Amino acid sequence: MAVEKILVIDDEPFIRKTFEEVLRGKRYGVSSASSIAEAERLMKREQFDVVFVDVRLPDGEGMSILERVSKGSTPPLAIMMSGFGTIESAVECMRAGAFDYLTKPFSISQIEVLVKKAESYRQMLQVNEYLSAELAGAKDLVGASEEINRLRDMLRKVAPTEATVLIQGENGTGKELVALSLYHSSTRSHLPYIRVNCAALSENLMESEFFGHEKGAFTGAMERREGRFELANGGTLLLDEISEISPRLQAKLLRVLQEKEFERVGGVKTIQVDVRVLATTNRDLRKAVEKGDFREDLYYRLNVFPVSVPPLRERTGDIRVLAEYFLARFAKQYNRSDLHLSPECHAALDAHRWPGNVRELQNAVERAVIMSEPGAPLISSALGLPGIQTLAVPVSLKVNEETESASSINGHGSGPLGDSRVSLAALEKEHILRVLSACADNRTRAADALQISIRTLRNKLHEYRLAKDE
Which is nearest to 342 in space by CA: 313, 383, 298, 395? Predict the structure, then answer.
C-alpha cells in the first residue's frame, strides 16, 4: 500500500478526532497536531505519506507547511483544508504545491476518496521510477518460423489468464521480450509492469528490492521504501533469472506466491498484494531441484504454465527477418540511410551458429551499421563474426619503424595490403579507433559494438595515448 501514515494538522479537536476515527478504521496510521510547531516536531520524528493541513492555524498560515514538506526526498502529498473556501484560495494552494483542496464542512466519503486518490498517485510516481525502458520498444516477437508461431500461439492462450508463467531459454533468446509480450496482451496491461534482475543483486539487497524496508532496518536505510511487489500491486512482476535467488529468499518468495502477503525488512506490518508473477531462467530448474539448489515446492508454484523460447539455431528461417528488422532500427538510430545487406552478408548470417542467439545477432548488425558507409551494402567482415575478416584496413595505414622491423625479422613478406606490412596490434588499434569515432566517442556504446568490456577499452586507449606521448 503506497499510503500508510497520515498527519492531520487542524486546531479544531472535532476535526482531528473525525480524521483519526475514519482513517484508523481503514487501518491507516494517523497522527494529529493543532499547530505548525507541533506538526514540525512530528515530521522530524516520522515520515508521512499524506498531510491534511488547515489553511489557518493559531501560529501561522498552513501554506507554510507546503514549503516544509517539499524539502524531503519523498515528500508527503499535502491536502489543504479551509472553512472559508474560495476559488482564489484553492488556486493559490495548488500553485504552491498542494495535491488537493478540501472545503469544510466535508463528509467522511470525501476524506476516503482523497486518500485513495493520493494512494493511486503515489504508487504511480514510484512505479515510474522502475518502469523498464523496454516498454518503449517492440511489443511483438519478430519472426515467421514454425517455432516462433507455435510460441506466439501459446502466449496468446495464456496471456489473458492470471496463471504464473515460467519462461525458460538460453541467454539471448528473448525471454524478457516474451514476458513483455505477455504483459501487453494481458488484462493488466494498463497497470504496473515491474522487473527485477535476480542475478544482479546480492542476497541482502534482493530481499529489500523484493519486499522493501522500514526506516532504520539496516545501515543506510534512511527512510521507508516500498519493494517491487508493492510497486507492482495490481499489475505484473517479472522475476528475471529466478534461479539465482538464495534458499532463504526462495522460502519467502514461496509465501508471497501462496499467501499474497509479506512484511518489509525490519517491519512487522503484513502487507497484502495482488500481483501476477512471470519468471525467467536460463537454467533447467528441474535439474536444479534434483541437485537441491532450488526448492521443489517453489518450482511447482512457478511452473504453472511453462514456456520454452527456442534458440536461434532452431529457427534459422527467422535469421534474415531479424537481421532486416535490426538493420532498419539501427539505420534510423545512427542516421545511416539506404543501407542493405549484401548477398555475402546474408550467407555469413546463415552459416553462423549463433551461440549468443538473438542478442548476438542484434549486436552483429549494430556493429555492421556503425562500420558501414551511407548508401553501401553491409559486408560480412563488418559483422565481426568468428572466421570472418573483421576490418579491411586502408593501404595507407602507417606503422612505426619498430613494427616494420619486427615484421622483416620474422620473414613476413608483402601481404594483401600491398607494400605496407601491418601488425595485428596496428589492425586492432585502427579498428578500435574507427568504431569509437563512429560511436561519437561514446565508450560504452563502442565497447558494446566491439564486444569487449569498458575496462578493456579504457586500457587500450590508455596504451595508445602513452605510445603517442613516447
Answer: 383
Q: Which comes out higher in pLDDT, residue 414 or 52?
A: 52
Sign (positive or negative) of CA dihedral 254, 256, 258, 261: positive
CA 154 – CA 253 distance, rounded (Å): 26
Per-residue cell: 42: 512530528
Distance CA 164, CA 161 (A): 9
Are the C-beta atoms of 236 and 183 separated by less than 8 Å? Answer: yes
CA atoms within 13 A on the CB side of 432: 22
Residue 393: name the closest of 439, 446, 438, 430 by CA: 430
Nearest alpha carbon to residue 95 among 73, 66, 55: 66
Classify 332 as helix, strand or coil. helix
CB 432 within 8 A of CB 457: yes
pLDDT, tens only, 204-232: 788 888 998 888 788 777 777 888 898 89
> Per the structure block, which three cell numbers stand in for 114?
482523497
Identify whether the C-beta of residue 157 lies closer than 8 Å to the C-beta of residue 150.
Answer: no
Which domains, and CATH codes, for the chain? 5-129 (3.40.50.2300), 133-310 (3.40.50.300), 315-388 (1.10.8.60), 391-470 (1.10.10.60)
